[in-house]
Every structure is written in C-alpha cells, then in structure tokens.
Amino acid sequence: MADTRIPVWLDCDPGHDDAFAILLACYHPRIRLLGISTVWGNASLDQTTPNALSILTALSKAHSIPVHPGASHALSRPPMHPPTDIHGATGLDGTDLLPAPVTTPSPIPAIPAMAAALLATPPNTAYLVATGAFTNAALLFASHPSLASHLAGVSLMGGAVGSGFTPAVLGAVDGVPRAGNWTQWAEFNVLADPEAADALFRNEALRGKITLVPLDLSHLVLGTEGVRIGILGGGTRLRRMLVELLMFFAGTYKEVFGIEEGPPLHDPLAVAAVLGAEGEGGVEFWDCDLATGERERFEVRVVTEGTYEDAKAGRTRTGQTVVRKLGKGEEGVRIPRGVDVEGFWRVMGECIERADEANEEAGNMV
Question: Where is the Inosine/uridine-preferring nucleoside hydrolase domain (predicted)?
C-alpha cells in the first residue's frame, strides 16, 4: 500500500517551542518526518544539535530520525549572540527531565542530506519546514535550485507584520509596543540572517509555495495555565518535561515582553501549517481577509541594510519583514490571519498521547 503521509523535512534550532514542533512532526499520523537539520539560532549550533538529539530521545525517535548539523552562522554576517534571555544558556533551560542523547549526529552535513531526502520524494508532495534562522534553507535552494519547483511547499516561522494584522498581543519592551521580538521591528529568525530570508522571498520559483507564520499568528496560540494543566494531566515524565519547558518559556516572556497569559508556541504552527495547506490534519488556518472571506496572498521583502548593532539600537529596521497585499488572483506568500487554536491544542494533545504510548512500549521516559 502506498504511503499517503506528507513528507516533511524539519530544519530547526531547538528551542523550547521547537520541542513541540519536533513532537508534532514525529507523531502526527499525516506526517512522514524525513529528517531533521539543525541551525544556529536559539542557541549556538553546538548546542542546538544535541538539543535535537535529546528531544528525539525523549520521544523514542532517536534511532529512526537522523539529525544533520547545518550552518553555525549567517550567510554573510558575523556571529550573533543567541537569545539567552528567552531560551537560557542551553536553548532548553528550565527542566532536568530532558534525557541525554542516545545517538550522535549524522556525519552527512545538512544541505546534501536535505536535498537527497527531498528530491527522493515524488514531485509536489514534500514540504520543507524551517523554524530557526533561514541560513540552511537559503543554502539549500542556492545549491539545488531545482528543489523549488520539486517541493509542494515551504513553511517558515518568522517575521512580523504588525499594524493590527491580527488581534494578537505582540508585547512591549521598556513600555514601547513592538511588532518584532528581537527589535521593535524585527523578529529573531529573520533578523538572524536577513539576507537568507530575503533570498527565499525573492525566489520566483517559490512564489506561491511559501507559507509564513509570523509573530502576528503565533501569538494567538499561547501556552496558558489551562493548556499546561491539560498537558500535565497524564503525569508521565514526558508531560512533566513539556510543562517545565513551557513554564520557563512563560517566565521569560512575562519578564521580557510583559505577556502574562503564557508563551506563544511559534514553531509547531509552521509544522501544523503543512497540514492546513493540505486541507486535513485537524488544524484549520484562515488565509483570507476575515471580514470578507476573500483569499489573500502577499509580497514579502526583508530590510537587509544595517548591522545587528544598528538594529538593536533602533538606528535601522534591519530584519523587518515588509509585507504588501497582492491583487486578487496573484500568487504570493500565504500568511494566515487566524488559526483554530482549540483544534491545534487538541491535535497536540493527541500527539503527546501517541508519544506516551511509544515511550511506554519502549520503556522510555515513564
């Protein structure tokens, strides 16, 4: 019988929310996770790679999902200090329940591994999901340009629209409301490598294939107290670990951004958006004008002028995603304005149940 699951490659920088993205990609029955590549971002590459291996160990997937190390810095910029005020020194601070890796990274580097796995899928079936700095993704399409026409789609977590694009609370720093989370204008993943992000959005072969999950969307999906209580209900070691990660994330978001309801779950939405693009999987995204129901697509450009220091000091808008709505019928980037939040958490809960069952069968994380 033919495998009808959606082939997905996950490029990530674990990361508290990446743990949930990996869990969703591993245990959603409609997804076939081809592999994971790691990139610098929430922590340095020498930290994000073992983080990915540890998460897979916690999910009893370490021996079935390979991890391939990727880029350790931006395409053309000096190293950027990771956001330790959000994710801690390790990128996954806040729990002692994360197990040590039981496997090692693949000796095959990220870019050739990604290309081989994705090109081995039938045309227009596979998705690339990128939830960290977009360096690996940009290098992939630069070195294997035919992939842009081969893939069904690319789902990116990054950027911020602002200007009331959604009713999400984006937070404030020092009393100043902002669209971005790393600067007033820029979201971290895009600012980390703005040239890489801009290269993706300017790739004509990807026009109409990119789904962008900006802060405006991810801040609608919060790990509230009710969500945390629901996850903890099963009482397994995995559930306790996930809640501890959410609690740490909640604390940093409250302290840094003044968001008290709970932390936004950015990265798993980029995985869930693949299901939404396929019209199934239990999570609905609304890529339309919510007032009229009219389908929307956008042109996205990234401000690349200026240094990291300029951006942090407010002298430039480096890393800002500049979004322009296209005319009716034009193809462009899909940026949903809403998501079925209840459906998302229901699906996430089902995936946690499957992970618990797999762990129990393996005698792991009980």
Answer: 8-346
Whether residue 298 contacts residue 156, with contact meaning beta carbons closer than 8 Å, is answered with: no
Rounded Cα–Cα distance for residues 360 and 365 (Å):
8
Q: Using an 8 Å Cβ cutoff, are 37 and 131 in contact? A: no
CB 78 within 8 A of CB 137: no
How many domains does the structure of the chain reveal? 1
pTM value?
A: 0.96
For residue 1, tell me if it sits in a domain: no
- Beta strand pairing status for 176-177 and 172-173? antiparallel
Question: Looking at the annotation, which residues are catalytic?
Answer: 266
Residue pair 127/6 in contact by the 8 Å Cβ criterion: yes
**What band does 61 get if pLDDT is binned at 50, 70 and 90?**
very high
Q: CB 85: neighbour CB atoms within 10 A?
A: 9
What CA–CA distance (Å, rounded) separates 67 from 105? 5
CATH number, domain containing residue 87: 3.90.245.10
| Residue 54, domain extent | 6-362
3-state secondary structure (DSSP) of residue 61: coil
3-class DSSP state of 288: strand
| Residue 190 pLDDT class (50, 70, 90 cuts) | very high
**Percent of the chain that is helix, strand, coil (3-state, to 5):** 40, 15, 45
